[in-house]
Amino acid sequence: MDNSAQYLFLASGLNDGEGFWIVGIKNCDENILEDKNLLDCHRKELIGSESAKDILIAINLNVNNLLNELKSKNYFIERPSKGISFDIPLYILENIFDFWLDIYKTKGAWETCLGLLKVRKRIPLTNLIESESLKGNSKKWALQIETLHAYVPNSQTIKRVNDPMWK
Known about the structure:
A 4-stranded antiparallel sheet has the order 3-1-2-4. The termini are far apart. It has 5 helices and 4 strands; from the N terminus they run βββαβαααα. Helices cover 43% and strands 20% of the residues. It is α+β, with helices and mostly antiparallel strands. It has a domain of 100 residues. A hairpin with a 2-residue loop joins strand 1 and strand 2. Helix 1 packs across helix 2, helix 1 packs parallel to helix 3 and helix 3 crosses helix 5.
């Protein structure tokens, strides 16, 4: 199995006039900004390809959890044709990127946090935290993962309009 060095990166981009954030992986000998759609690189870490893939999966799951939660609360977040909406502030994505990159360095912590993230996909961790079901580091990490999901836009919620019954 090849575990060559890769860049895990967070960048901003523009595609047909539409802005987006992207978290991705590039070979270490490639310049991230060679992609004509990318404007600026905000985070870049050189790590092994297997590690980069694992961290990218966690970041994407975290972002998808956040977007799904906002959608369920009737917040309108644009879905660009590529990447992540500019409606999500850069600091939120930087916090998510930094957390998963840092926690990956400790195998036990990584496995626990990834498990908590998968649970978070289904239910908020606040019930587990408040019921004292989680102890020690698990509780500390659950609080941090909840914080990564705590973003709420300043914009008003959009009321859903029911589709006509004849469609």
